[in-house]
Amino acid sequence: MNLLLDSASLWYRAFYGMPDSLRSPSGAPVNAIRGFLDSVARLTAQYKPNQVIACLDGDWRPSWRTELLPEYKAARDSAIAEDEERAQEEIDLESQVPIILDILDAIGLPVIGIDDYEADDVIATLATREAQPSVIATGDRDLFQLVDDAKPIKVAYLAKGISSHELVDLQWIAERYSIPGERYALMALLRGDPSDGLPGVRGIGEKGAAKIVTHFASVAEIVEAALANDSRLTAAICKKILDGREYLRRAEPVVQCVRDLRLPPLPGALPQRVVDQKRIDEIVTEFGVGTSVNRLLAALALD
Fold it and tell me: How many Cα atoms within 13 Å fall on the side-chain side of residue 70?
């Protein structure tokens, strides 16, 4: 089994979940570093994967997605620019990311990102391409669209924290949203996600979207039904769908994860030894994160 890390989701949650009083000997913040490493250690110990892969955003607002939908994630940049405290928090977090990546690289864990694509696309490609089952560690519901019981591909959903996270399969999605589990992306497209700049079809919320996708499996089916005044849709819903056709056309490829990126082959197993012990020792000395590094090494059976 491969453990696929939505890395930014994990270090973002670690940064805001761990006290900012956690500092290196020189006073630099290390809360994201320690929280991220501790989270990966706990997930590794629980799921005992054959490989752990850190997936990165090559660009968190890919140009091809913003060309289709200019508002995609635009509000996040504005919010940071207008809030000095949040801007400083972003700086504090971003200063820790290179150290996290250095640690993973020195241990010998694969770190994969690709220009103009998001970590979601890297995760989707690896989960689809690799023969092994996958567990995707994330706090992002967008990745529910990848869940597949046949392979299987599951999501370790971290919204409630590492210790009480939920393992999402198709039944979990079906019970939570009252939809066929494999239609999560279609529901999300109709519903929208204001935090990502996705307005959804005007006037159709989550409950309305869930009712629609219970009956229809694709945008094409939904539009065709609206055009035909299908009895499974009210007249008001038909009008909303037809009014939103242009949004659906532009937003569908934005919402869907890309599953066919050209990515390097993965090592077939976890490293048998630390690749660069000297670098690990330097980081531990400089940043005072030895306890968290040792937890991860122990979980990987490299201690």
Answer: 0
Which CATH number is 201's domain given?
1.10.150.20
Domain shared by 169 and 192, yes or no: no
Backbone angles phi, psi at 274, to 5 degrees: -65, 130
Report the pLDDT value the prediction gives residue 268, as an integer from 0 to 100: 87
Nearest-CA neighbor of 248 among 185, 294, 181, 196?
185
**What's the N-to-C CA distance of the chain in angstroms?**
22
Query: Starting at the edge strand that comes first in sequence, how are the strands of the sheet with 51-55 ordered?
Result: 111-112, 51-55, 2-6, 134-138, 153-157, 166-168
Q: What is the pLDDT of residues 23-81, one digit of tens each?
A: 999 999 999 999 999 999 999 999 999 999 999 999 999 999 999 999 998 877 666 66
Range of weakest confidence among 13-27, 73-87, 90-104, 244-258: 73-87
Q: What DSSP string runs through 39-81?
A: HHHHHHHHH--SEEEEE--S-SS-HHHHHH-TTTTHHHHHHHH
pLDDT, one tens digit per residue, over 191-237 is: 999 888 899 999 999 999 999 999 999 999 999 999 999 999 999 99
CB 69 within 8 A of CB 251: yes
Looking at the fold, whether 237 and 292 belong to one and the same domain comes out as no
Asked if residue 119 and residue 101 are part of one domain, the reply reads yes
What residues make up the domain containing 120?
2-176+258-299
Residues 129, 160 within the same domain: yes
| Closest alpha carbon to 257 in 94, 114, 78 | 114
Whether the upstream peptide bond of residue 152 has omega within 30° of 0, thus cis, is: yes
Number of other CB atoms surrounding residue 222 within 10 Å: 27
Look at the chain and report how many structural domains it folds into.
2
14 and 65 co-located in one domain: yes
C-beta neighbour count of 78 within 10 angstroms: 9
